[in-house]
Design brief:
Helix content is 74%, strand content 0%. It is an all-alpha fold and 159 residues long. The longest helix has 25 residues, at 30-54. The radius of gyration is 19 Å and the shape is flat. Keywords: Membrane, Transmembrane, Transmembrane helix. The chain crosses the membrane at residues 6-26, 38-55, 102-121, 128-148.
């Protein structure tokens, strides 16, 4: 539920920014739109990946800490590129470098489609909203199929 809330806020902010620029007559530069987002996120993400590789082994202790840190270090050394390109949730979900950044991959996936959906809505609102509804319906049906096929019951186990 909280991830959905953050995705909703992100999409509202992107839409608000887009339509604010469109109302002023500013044309959307799609490569600059993507580059701006990548550069804003790359610096803190780079620090997180660097910290996982270098610093985390010195920050804790315990019987399982070294094994856990070693597993994260190996996945970061091997799959750092999938984290930097925000595809870690799709390419190697079991060997993510910085596990907490799976959300960035999902958010960037929708960010790549945002300009096209927003341009479709601004050019022809009826067909743009129809396209948005179709995408939403397909995603809902796909999620339902996955839950049905894997027999997910919607409950979180409590230990």
């Amino acid at each position: 539920m909280t991830v959905d809330t953050f995705l909703a806020f992100a999409s509202i902010l992107v839409s608000y920014s887009f339509f604010g620029m469109a109302s002023k007559g500013v044309k959307l530069n799609i490569p600059l739109f993507y580059l701006n987002r990548h550069l804003r996120l790359l610096v803190p993400l780079g620090f997180a990946v660097g910290a996982y590789i270098t610093v985390t082994k010195h920050l804790g202790g315990g019987p399982l800490y070294r094994d856990l840190v070693h597993a994260y270090n190996m996945s970061c050394k091997t799959f750092w590129w999938s984290t930097v390109f925000y595809i870690q949730a799709f390419i190697n979900p079991r060997l993510m470098c910085v596990v907490q950044t799976w959300f960035l991959g999902v958010d960037m996936f929708w960010y790549y489609f945002a300009p096209f959906l927003l341009l479709a809505i601004s050019k022809n609102p009826l067909s743009g909203y129809l396209l948005l509804f179709t995408i939403y319906s397909c995603c809902t049906a796909f999620n339902f199929y996955i839950a049905w096929d894997h027999h997910f019951n919607g409950q979180m186990p409590v230990s």
